[in-house]
TrEMBL record:
Keywords: DNA-binding. The keyword DNA-binding applies. It holds the Pfam family MerR_1. This is HTH merR-type domain-containing protein. Gene3D superfamilies: 1.10.1660.10. The keyword DNA-binding applies. Residues 12-82 form the HTH merR-type domain. InterPro entries: DNA-bd_dom_put_sf (IPR009061), MerR-type_HTH_dom (IPR000551), MerR_fam (IPR047057). SUPFAM superfamilies: Putative DNA-binding domain (SSF46955).
């Protein structure tokens, strides 16, 4: 459901459409509302159905990225609270984001290292398979200290 509020000329979306736009289930959207992750109370239409603005959908997309990158819910709640409070606390918001950025960069580095090990193991098995050997030869490389075990 998409409606246009004639008084403010603002497009709003029902919870089903917001679910499609954000990738969050309707249950998750209700949970985000209950947990105080939204910037303002959710408006409702005459039938009591939730209505979200484009700005709110954008905010929800930010929250989903923070959550999917590992930011704990209490930290997102703190960030949302600071954003609701408005100007004057940008340094605190910046600090939250910078600390999270450091954690995400470490996650990326850890995944890059894991991927290098996986690439190495694939290469070892592919070379062994090409030689007609059922078991690859003893190999050393990224993350490999002895003969491959599996």
């Amino acid at each position: 459901m998409t409606t246009t509020d004639r008084t403010a000329e603002q497009t709003t979306y029902g919870i089903g459409r917001v679910s499609e736009l954000t990738g969050l289930s309707t249950h998750a959207l209700r949970f985000y509302e209950q947990e105080g992750l939204l910037l303002a109370p959710v408006r409702r239409d005459g039938a009591g159905r939730r209505l979200f603005t484009e700005e709110e959908v954008g905010w929800l997309k930010v929250c989903t990225k923070l959550r999917s990158s590992g930011m704990p819910l209490p930290e997102i709640q703190r960030y949302a609270q600071l954003a609701r409070e408005g100007a004057g606390n940008e340094a605190a918001r910046l600090e939250i984001l910078q600390q999270h950025e450091e954690r995400v960069q470490q996650q990326v580095a850890d995944l890059q290292e894991a991927l290098a090990t996986i690439h190495f193991k694939i290469d070892v098995y592919a070379r062994g398979h090409a030689r007609g050997q059922g078991r690859p030869a003893v190999a050393r490389g990224p993350g490999v200290l002895s003969a491959p075990s599996a």
